[in-house]
């Protein structure tokens, strides 16, 4: 019972830390906001040069505001009273186009409700499927490329100080979170790290397949409006698993570092240092154009694979250590 309570406590902490952190980490010059379970409002008179992505939240585009990129909302609500120069995609939920709204690109509403006031304008194609209904002629649109999710996730920052500040902030936050998780789930974390480190090929393969198939599964769930909560839960579980696996790999890095320097650190300190070091290296390499995304992606697949192999650290993938039996015969007993 104690282990279950510890696990639930860690999940709640991960949710509280992860949800606000992801949206902030995705913001920055030359980088559109990505928000999980929150609200994004573009105030009247403001302009957004990039795209906005919201999972399970609310997007408000007010009058006289302008989004120069795309707007993607999964499992939430969207209200447009301003102008969107790119495409608009809503998967599950509801959207309202006000009388002063203008969408210059394609409007795609999949498994959601669409309400348009008189005077609203859509210059591009309108693709609208009724909630939970797909006909043979239904064409699911391709979600527009978002800087945070592009296959080549290169983000060009106008000010390099933002990039440095982002790396420092993320690494410190991850180190503190790793210390907290290590205090509650030390052994499960160690099992996840051992699974990924001992069998990297299997862990990487499982992680890659999960990341590749997860978007399709989530989209299928979102199309059926009754399964939207399940889709949102799947997204949340995937994010928690990635974060948990990353921290577990950080613990593995920290423990190997302490062995290398012949020192013994408390486990939370090893987890904090290893996670900090792993995050700094991955985030710094991610700034390299074209190929910088590869290292964080590989680490992410290993982390996710380790979580899957060990079932969130509930079981070990390593064979038990055989007990060494002393071959020395026992002395004879008196009277024998």
Automatic annotation (TrEMBL):
Keywords: Membrane, Signal, Transmembrane, Transmembrane helix. The keyword Membrane applies. Residues 1-25 form the signal peptide. The chain crosses the membrane at residues 161-185, 206-228, 234-253, 265-285, 291-309. This is Polymer-forming cytoskeletal protein. The lineage of its organism: Bacteria, Bacillati, Chloroflexota, Anaerolineae, Anaerolineales.
């Amino acid at each position: 019972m104690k282990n279950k309570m510890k696990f639930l406590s860690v999940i709640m902490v991960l949710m509280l830390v992860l949800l606000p952190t992801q949206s902030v980490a995705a913001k920055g010059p030359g980088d559109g906001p990505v928000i999980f379970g929150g609200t994004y409002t573009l105030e009247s008179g403001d302009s957004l040069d990039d795209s906005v992505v919201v999972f399970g939240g609310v997007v408000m585009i007010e009058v006289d505001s302008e989004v120069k990129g795309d707007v993607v909302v999964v499992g939430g609500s969207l209200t447009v009273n301003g102008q969107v120069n790119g495409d608009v995609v809503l998967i599950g939920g509801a959207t309202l186009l006000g009388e002063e709204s203008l969408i210059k690109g394609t409007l795609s509403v999949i498994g959601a409700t669409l309400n348009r006031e008189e005077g609203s304008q859509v210059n591009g194609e309108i693709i609208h499927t009724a909630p939970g209904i797909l006909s043979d002629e239904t064409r699911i649109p391709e979600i527009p490329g978002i800087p945070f999710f592009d296959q080549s996730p290169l983000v060009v920052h106008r000010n390099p100080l933002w990039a440095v500040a982002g790396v420092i902030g993320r690494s410190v936050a991850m180190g503190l979170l790793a210390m907290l998780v290590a205090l509650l789930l030390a052994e499960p974390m160690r099992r996840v790290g051992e699974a990924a480190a001992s069998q990297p090929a299997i862990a990487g393969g499982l992680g890659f397949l999960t990341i590749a198939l997860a978007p399709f599964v989530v989209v299928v769930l979102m199309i059926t409006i009754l399964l939207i909560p399940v889709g949102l839960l799947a997204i949340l579980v995937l994010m928690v698993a990635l974060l948990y696996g990353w921290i577990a790999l950080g613990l593995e890095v920290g423990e190997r570092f302490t062995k290398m320097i012949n020192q013994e650190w408390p486990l939370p300190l090893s987890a904090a240092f290893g996670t900090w070091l792993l995050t700094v290296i991955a985030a710094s390499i991610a700034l390299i154009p074209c190929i910088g995304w590869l290292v964080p992606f590989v680490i992410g697949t290993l982390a996710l694979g380790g979580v899957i192999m060990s079932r969130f650290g509930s079981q070990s993938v390593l064979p038990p250590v055989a007990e060494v039996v002393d071959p020395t015969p026992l002395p004879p007993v008196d009277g024998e």
